[in-house]
Specification:
Elements (H helix, E strand, L loop, with lengths): L3 H8 L4 H18 L1 H15 L4 H4 L5 H51 L2 H5 L3 H43 L1 H8 L1 H39 L1 H6 L3 H26 L2 H25 L5 H15 L5 H22 L19 E9 L5 E10 L4 E6 L5 H8 L7 E6 L2 E2 L5 H6 L1 E4 L10 H5 L8 H10 L3 H5 L18 H15 L3 E5 L7 H14 L4 E5 L11 E6 L2 E6 L1 H7 L2 H10 L9 H5 L1
Parallel strand pairs: 3-8, 3-9, 6-7, 7-8
Antiparallel strand pairs: 1-2, 1-4, 4-5, 9-10
Membrane topology: Multi-pass membrane protein
GO molecular function: ATP binding
Subcellular location: Cell membrane
Length: 596
Amino acid sequence: MKHPLKRLIRYGRKYRPLMWQAGTCSVLNKLFDLAPPLLIGMAVDIVVEQQNSLLAQWGFETIFGQLLILSVLTFIIWGLESIFEYAYDRLWRNLAQNVQHDLRLDAYSHLQDLELSFFEERSTGGLLSILNDDINQLERFLDIGANEILQITTTIISISVGFLILAPTVAWMTMIPIPVIVWGSIVFQNKLSPYYAQVREQVSLLSARLSNNLSGITTIKSFTTEAYEIQRLGIDSEAYRQSNYRAIALSAAFIPLIRFAILFGFTATLLIGGVQAAEGQLAVGTYSVLVFMTQRLLWPLTGLGKTLDQYQRAMASTQRVMNLLDTPILIHSGHLYLDQVQGAIELKNVNFAYGNGVEVIKNLSLHIPAGQTIGIAGSTGSGKSTLVKLLLRLYEIQQGTITLDGVDLRDIQLHSLRQAIAWVSQEVFLFHGTVGDNIAYGSPEATPEEITHAAKLAEAHEFILELPQGYETIVGERGQKLSGGQRQRIAIARAILKNPPVLILDEATSAVDNETEAAISRSLEHITQNRTTIAIAHRLSTIRHADCIYVMEQGQIVEQGTHETLVAQQGVYANLWQVQTGSKPTQTPHLQDFTE
């Protein structure tokens, strides 16, 4: 597996010009930042040597002339340092924002293309942790850390070269701590890496817990489990805290250890360099430069611990984001775009099993003529809803073929396929926004008149007008401000407004009262005209007028025909119909049935 930094650089290759600009400004800023000790040394040289100073040798003989030149140089150097500081700060921050923006969009886009089984195996909170916290962690490093690494590197190289030129006999004493510091940094980096990987894993689990609890706050309140959830959250939060403690214990030891190496180099330069200056072996101005430069060289290295800390956190986060981007997409889009969809659907010898290997659909063959309304009935777990998800290619079949107007679904562009189908799920999801926005979801160009017309067909218009702001009423997260029946009618209106060739109603009336169900059933007569409709229902009254009804049991079609035909057969469908109409009493379980 590639190092996360290499993967990040490869990902951001389109930003290489911006990286080069930011990096160049960082280096130039540090070079001008290192100039003041040289200016101080030159000032000392002018005062002490006067007519024999370095500037005097360049032709500036008067003290005033030398100091004037030095003042002009100081103004220029400080000005350029400030300009390049502004430039690198702006460039690095812009780079961080650009990478953060693109990485979040690419990660989310990739996430949307993954199959449903991926989401079933992972928590929403864990994925949110990657999209938010991990990407933000990377942005914080690019904001500050990358510049600091460049500037520390520039400091080491430039001052080392300067020392070797000015005072090679003293320079080695200053250089001795650098290998120790570099070696220490590598050791700490290797030791910190697994600690921060664990920190990122723990924060993901903590985010998953919080997200899950907030989604289930009604259940928590109704079962009075607030104290229990606080206890569970405390366990996850404590695990996160402990993982941070371990990382902090190691990273905090870095700076104190580095200080001892710095102390040795600075003291040696101060002592031995001072002796050589007193004996005339080293110019006083040069000695001043050495003392100041030693501090400028070694002292910033104490900040290497903080930078290293940021780097390791960022690399742990980068690893998680890149792993998400590397997750293979198992359901690939075809290339055929459908212009005119009639709606004829056929399944031939279809087999499907979820990840546990248990077959849910078994050698199923089914033909649905274009424009007809068919009903699918069966007991819970018979595979009815799975069949719908296979039609939308939310899952991929293992064997057999499914065609739409004679074209294999795997050859059709996914967007084109799903655009031709409207699905009203039994688990209605509404987005935080207005009623009108939710009806128009998927049809952004719809006019208010079209939205209202769709609501009327779904028997939703009247209750919407009774809401505080009508169609502008905010429904709340997941539509929590509305009843289950209201949410389902809005979902039906949303499907109607899409005006698809194929309409799928998956228990679309399961959460409505009998009066509303009757109203929706009346409206279905208009909704289903000139389109293929698949209605899955436990309430058989909603599909009794279908052109054909298929009865599923254990992933197979066991009966088919019209309502009257199936009732007359006295089979599975007839038994379900008799139970629902009350002509056959349901068996009441005894108490011991629940305790055995």
